[in-house]
Amino acid sequence: MDTSPRIKIASHVLAGIALLLAVVLHLLPALIAGLMVYVLVGAIAPKLESRLTGAASRQVAVALLGVIVVAVLAAAIVGGVAFVRAELAGPDALPDRVMPVIDQARAQLPPALVEHLPVSSDDLRASMGNLARRHSEQLQHAGKTTLLVFGRILVGLIIGMMVALAHERAPARGGPLLRALETRCLRLARAFREIVFAQGKIAAINTVFTMIFLLVAMPLAGWHLPLAKTLVLVTFVVGLLPVVGNLISNTLIVISALSVSVAAAIVALVFLVLLHKFEYFLNARIVGGQIRARAWEILLAMLVMEAAFGLAGVVAAPIYYAYLKHELKDEGLI
Question: 1 in a domain, yes or no?
Answer without folding.
Answer: no
